[in-house]
Specification:
The complex is a heterodimer of chains A (112) and B (112). With 112 residues, chain A is mostly beta strands. Chain A has strands spanning 4-6, 10-13, 19-25, 31-38, 42-51, 54-57, 64-70, 73-78, 87-94, 102-103, 107-111. Chain B is mainly β. Classes of the chains: A mainly beta (112), B mainly beta (112).
Chain lengths: 112, 112
Amino acid sequence: DVKVTQSSRYLVKRTGEKVFLECVQDMDHENMFWYRQDPGLGLRLIYFSYDVKMKEKGDIPEGYSVSREKKERFSLILESASTNQTSMYLCASTGTSLSEQFFGPGTRLTVL
Amino acid sequence: DQQVKQNSPSLSVQEGRISILNCDYTNSMFDYFLWYKKYPAEGPTFLISISSIKDKNEDGRFTVFLNKSAKHLSLHIVPSQPGDSAVYFCAATRYNFNKFYFGSGTKLNVKP
Protein backbone atom coordinates (compact mmCIF):
# COMPACT_ATOMS: atom_id res chain seq x y z
CA ASP A 1 0.00 0.00 0.00
CA VAL A 2 1.21 3.45 -0.90
CA LYS A 3 1.75 5.61 2.10
CA VAL A 4 2.00 9.37 2.13
CA THR A 5 2.71 10.87 5.52
CA GLN A 6 2.70 14.47 6.65
CA SER A 7 4.72 15.67 9.60
CA SER A 8 1.88 17.26 11.55
CA ARG A 9 -1.90 16.87 11.65
CA TYR A 10 -2.46 20.21 13.36
CA LEU A 11 -0.26 23.29 13.59
CA VAL A 12 -0.81 26.70 15.16
CA LYS A 13 1.62 29.45 14.20
CA ARG A 14 1.86 33.20 14.62
CA THR A 15 1.86 35.78 11.84
CA GLY A 16 5.34 36.28 10.47
CA GLU A 17 6.69 32.89 11.54
CA LYS A 18 8.48 30.62 9.08
CA VAL A 19 6.56 27.36 8.72
CA PHE A 20 7.76 24.03 7.36
CA LEU A 21 5.37 21.31 6.27
CA GLU A 22 6.97 17.98 5.47
CA CYS A 23 5.67 15.20 3.29
CA VAL A 24 7.16 11.75 2.74
CA GLN A 25 6.02 9.00 0.36
CA ASP A 26 7.26 5.43 0.35
CA MET A 27 6.47 4.27 -3.21
CA ASP A 28 9.33 5.79 -5.17
CA HIS A 29 6.94 8.15 -6.96
CA GLU A 30 8.41 10.75 -9.27
CA ASN A 31 5.69 13.34 -8.85
CA MET A 32 4.73 15.08 -5.65
CA PHE A 33 2.22 17.87 -5.05
CA TRP A 34 1.12 20.38 -2.44
CA TYR A 35 -2.49 21.56 -2.37
CA ARG A 36 -4.53 23.66 -0.05
CA GLN A 37 -8.17 22.95 0.54
CA ASP A 38 -10.58 25.73 1.46
CA PRO A 39 -14.39 25.59 1.71
CA GLY A 40 -16.06 26.25 -1.63
CA LEU A 41 -12.73 26.36 -3.47
CA GLY A 42 -11.81 22.70 -3.54
CA LEU A 43 -8.18 21.67 -3.89
CA ARG A 44 -5.88 24.30 -5.32
CA LEU A 45 -2.39 23.40 -6.44
CA ILE A 46 0.41 25.36 -4.79
CA TYR A 47 3.51 23.65 -6.20
CA PHE A 48 4.47 20.34 -7.68
CA SER A 49 7.69 18.49 -8.36
CA TYR A 50 8.34 15.89 -11.03
CA ASP A 51 11.87 15.01 -9.94
CA VAL A 52 14.47 15.70 -7.28
CA LYS A 53 15.37 19.38 -7.19
CA MET A 54 12.76 20.12 -9.86
CA LYS A 55 9.69 22.17 -9.05
CA GLU A 56 6.93 23.98 -10.85
CA LYS A 57 4.48 26.58 -9.67
CA GLY A 58 0.89 25.63 -9.42
CA ASP A 59 -2.08 27.97 -9.40
CA ILE A 60 -1.42 29.77 -6.10
CA PRO A 61 2.34 29.79 -5.37
CA GLU A 62 2.49 33.28 -3.85
CA GLY A 63 3.77 33.23 -0.29
CA TYR A 64 5.06 29.65 -0.56
CA SER A 65 8.23 27.89 -1.58
CA VAL A 66 9.15 24.21 -1.80
CA SER A 67 12.14 21.95 -1.51
CA ARG A 68 12.75 18.48 -2.89
CA GLU A 69 16.24 17.28 -1.99
CA LYS A 70 15.32 13.60 -1.91
CA LYS A 71 12.86 11.70 -4.06
CA GLU A 72 10.68 10.63 -1.17
CA ARG A 73 10.43 14.00 0.56
CA PHE A 74 8.71 17.21 -0.51
CA SER A 75 8.61 20.20 1.81
CA LEU A 76 6.34 23.22 1.70
CA ILE A 77 7.67 26.41 3.26
CA LEU A 78 5.73 29.46 4.31
CA GLU A 79 8.44 32.13 4.51
CA SER A 80 6.36 34.51 6.62
CA ALA A 81 3.01 33.07 7.63
CA SER A 82 -0.07 35.23 7.26
CA THR A 83 -3.63 34.73 8.49
CA ASN A 84 -4.89 34.11 4.94
CA GLN A 85 -2.70 31.01 4.85
CA THR A 86 -4.86 29.35 7.47
CA SER A 87 -6.05 26.25 5.64
CA MET A 88 -5.89 22.49 5.24
CA TYR A 89 -2.69 21.51 3.40
CA LEU A 90 -2.62 18.27 1.50
CA CYS A 91 0.38 16.50 0.04
CA ALA A 92 0.02 13.95 -2.77
CA SER A 93 2.20 11.76 -4.95
CA THR A 94 1.79 9.82 -8.17
CA GLY A 95 4.01 7.59 -10.25
CA THR A 96 2.69 8.43 -13.71
CA SER A 97 0.44 11.05 -15.16
CA LEU A 98 -2.43 8.68 -15.81
CA SER A 99 -2.80 7.16 -12.40
CA GLU A 100 -4.47 8.31 -9.29
CA GLN A 101 -2.79 10.59 -6.79
CA PHE A 102 -2.25 9.27 -3.30
CA PHE A 103 -2.88 11.82 -0.59
CA GLY A 104 -1.53 12.28 2.89
CA PRO A 105 -3.88 12.87 5.84
CA GLY A 106 -3.51 16.64 5.66
CA THR A 107 -2.17 19.33 7.98
CA ARG A 108 -4.64 21.79 9.43
CA LEU A 109 -2.64 25.02 9.79
CA THR A 110 -3.96 27.94 11.78
CA VAL A 111 -2.10 31.24 11.61
CA LEU A 112 -2.98 33.65 14.42
CA ASP B 1 -10.47 30.29 -14.06
CA GLN B 2 -11.71 26.93 -12.86
CA GLN B 3 -11.36 24.28 -15.52
CA VAL B 4 -13.28 21.70 -13.49
CA LYS B 5 -16.55 22.66 -11.84
CA GLN B 6 -18.90 20.98 -9.44
CA ASN B 7 -21.92 23.23 -9.28
CA SER B 8 -23.73 21.47 -6.44
CA PRO B 9 -22.02 22.11 -3.11
CA SER B 10 -24.23 19.58 -1.36
CA LEU B 11 -26.58 16.68 -1.98
CA SER B 12 -28.85 14.79 0.40
CA VAL B 13 -30.12 11.31 -0.44
CA GLN B 14 -32.05 8.61 1.39
CA GLU B 15 -30.23 5.36 2.15
CA GLY B 16 -30.82 2.77 -0.58
CA ARG B 17 -31.53 5.36 -3.27
CA ILE B 18 -29.24 6.52 -6.07
CA SER B 19 -26.79 9.40 -5.57
CA ILE B 20 -25.76 11.30 -8.68
CA LEU B 21 -22.88 13.72 -8.45
CA ASN B 22 -22.07 15.93 -11.41
CA CYS B 23 -18.94 17.55 -12.77
CA ASP B 24 -18.28 19.78 -15.77
CA TYR B 25 -14.99 20.68 -17.41
CA THR B 26 -13.95 23.26 -19.95
CA ASN B 27 -10.68 21.95 -21.36
CA SER B 28 -11.23 19.52 -24.24
CA MET B 29 -7.61 18.36 -23.89
CA PHE B 30 -8.41 16.47 -20.68
CA ASP B 31 -8.38 12.75 -21.31
CA TYR B 32 -8.42 11.19 -17.85
CA PHE B 33 -10.93 11.84 -15.10
CA LEU B 34 -11.04 10.74 -11.49
CA TRP B 35 -13.34 10.85 -8.49
CA TYR B 36 -12.08 11.10 -4.94
CA LYS B 37 -13.88 10.77 -1.64
CA LYS B 38 -12.86 12.78 1.39
CA TYR B 39 -13.89 12.33 5.02
CA PRO B 40 -13.32 15.17 7.50
CA ALA B 41 -9.76 15.37 8.86
CA GLU B 42 -8.51 12.84 6.28
CA GLY B 43 -6.86 13.14 2.90
CA PRO B 44 -8.89 12.36 -0.24
CA THR B 45 -8.92 8.74 -1.34
CA PHE B 46 -9.23 7.58 -4.92
CA LEU B 47 -12.60 6.11 -5.84
CA ILE B 48 -12.88 5.52 -9.57
CA SER B 49 -11.51 6.84 -12.84
CA ILE B 50 -12.34 6.91 -16.53
CA SER B 51 -10.31 7.44 -19.66
CA SER B 52 -11.67 9.57 -22.48
CA ILE B 53 -11.78 6.54 -24.78
CA LYS B 54 -14.62 5.16 -22.66
CA ASP B 55 -18.01 6.54 -21.74
CA LYS B 56 -18.65 4.39 -18.69
CA ASN B 57 -16.67 2.68 -15.99
CA GLU B 58 -18.16 0.60 -13.22
CA ASP B 59 -16.75 -0.60 -9.91
CA GLY B 60 -19.23 -2.22 -7.57
CA ARG B 61 -21.76 0.35 -6.44
CA PHE B 62 -19.91 3.17 -8.20
CA THR B 63 -20.26 4.05 -11.88
CA VAL B 64 -18.74 7.00 -13.67
CA PHE B 65 -20.24 8.26 -16.92
CA LEU B 66 -18.39 10.52 -19.34
CA ASN B 67 -20.09 12.66 -21.99
CA LYS B 68 -17.27 14.19 -23.99
CA SER B 69 -19.43 16.27 -26.27
CA ALA B 70 -21.04 17.94 -23.25
CA LYS B 71 -17.77 17.98 -21.29
CA HIS B 72 -19.64 16.43 -18.42
CA LEU B 73 -19.07 13.50 -16.11
CA SER B 74 -21.17 12.06 -13.35
CA LEU B 75 -20.72 9.61 -10.51
CA HIS B 76 -23.59 7.29 -9.66
CA ILE B 77 -23.71 5.49 -6.33
CA VAL B 78 -26.28 2.71 -6.14
CA PRO B 79 -27.47 1.90 -3.56
CA SER B 80 -26.31 4.77 -1.38
CA GLN B 81 -25.20 3.93 2.16
CA PRO B 82 -24.70 6.17 5.22
CA GLY B 83 -20.97 5.42 5.05
CA ASP B 84 -20.89 7.13 1.65
CA SER B 85 -21.49 10.48 3.37
CA ALA B 86 -18.38 12.50 2.50
CA VAL B 87 -17.15 15.22 0.18
CA TYR B 88 -16.63 14.04 -3.38
CA PHE B 89 -14.13 15.74 -5.69
CA CYS B 90 -13.83 15.21 -9.39
CA ALA B 91 -10.48 15.78 -11.06
CA ALA B 92 -9.13 15.88 -14.60
CA THR B 93 -5.75 15.63 -16.26
CA ARG B 94 -4.25 14.80 -19.61
CA TYR B 95 -1.72 12.29 -20.84
CA ASN B 96 1.92 13.17 -20.20
CA PHE B 97 0.92 16.11 -18.08
CA ASN B 98 1.59 15.96 -14.39
CA LYS B 99 -0.99 18.46 -13.22
CA PHE B 100 -4.44 17.55 -11.93
CA TYR B 101 -7.36 19.96 -11.84
CA PHE B 102 -9.93 19.53 -9.09
CA GLY B 103 -13.51 20.68 -8.71
CA SER B 104 -14.71 22.43 -5.58
CA GLY B 105 -16.37 19.30 -4.18
CA THR B 106 -19.90 18.11 -3.41
CA LYS B 107 -20.82 17.15 0.12
CA LEU B 108 -23.00 14.06 0.05
CA ASN B 109 -25.23 13.23 3.00
CA VAL B 110 -26.89 9.82 2.95
CA LYS B 111 -29.70 9.69 5.48
CA PRO B 112 -30.51 6.39 7.22
